[in-house]
């Protein structure tokens, strides 16, 4: 198993692009505009072998160093579990779930006032499987913009949106948008696991903290990221999100926050 690549307290000026199992992974992470404290978001890319990898994004909560530490601890624990699982011959789902469960316990023990959201994507033999806790989101869509996967945010607003009680515009501007009902670092944590999804060449998978989806509509993200040059497209999406954070032009959304995006695109069958 290759070494994991972490992005912790990142303040990136540009997108990083990495070859990954017959495709490309692109990463961008930065602090909230004007923020001097740490970036509480974190990301990791974990290559397992030539056919499998795991991507993850965590958005620490707590408004202080505990948020940063919670997200970093969650990803470090996940990567450790994946490494141990590879050595012991465990399946990826088993190693991922063990890692999330261990992260939940460690955060409660070491940072009892902190928590983090967590989104994880298992990529294996041309298929993905999503795992998530909290209101960070996973998308998958085709090169033509057809949405294949959108995880449901674990929040009152997210559930209202999924039920049709709120539309996307109402949800983005809702006064309780920030309330999260499920986090890593809580005794009642639960993990939502999706079904395997076959990827076609040039499909795109996106994992992102709410800094992206509180400032850009899902349709805007899809339309920008489905184009050919993944790194260039991700740079545009990140730039658009940061501009909305810093220059509010109604009716466009505006919610300054840390921002982390990981995108993956297979280029071979």
How would you describe this protein?
The chain is an alpha+beta fold. It has helices at about 65-90, 90-110, 155-165, 170, 210-215, 220-225, 230-245; strands spanning about 5-10, 15-20, 25-30, 40-50, 50-60, 115-125, 125-135, 135-140, 145-150, 190-195, 195-200, 205-210, 260-265. The protein is built from seven helices and 13 strands. It has a single domain (about 5-265), classed as PPM-type phosphatase domain (Phosphatase 2c, domain 1), CATH 3.60.40.10. Helix 1 (about 65-90) packs antiparallel against helix 2. The model has no long low-confidence stretch (mean pLDDT about 95). It is globular, with a radius of gyration of 17 Å. The strands form two sheets. Strands 1, 4, 5, 6, 7, 10 and 11 form a seven-stranded antiparallel beta sheet that branches. A six-stranded antiparallel beta sheet has the order 2-3-13-12-8-9.
Question: Helices and strands in order, then pairings?
Answer:
Elements: E1 5-8, E2 16-20, E3 23-30, E4 41-49, E5 52-61, H1 65-88, H2 92-110, E6 115-124, E7 127-133, E8 137-141, E9 147-150, H3 156-163, H4 168-172, E10 192-193, E11 197-198, E12 204-208, H5 210-213, H6 218-225, H7 230-246, E13 259-266
Antiparallel strand pairs: 1-4, 2-3, 3-13, 4-5, 5-6, 6-7, 7-10, 7-11, 8-9, 8-12, 12-13
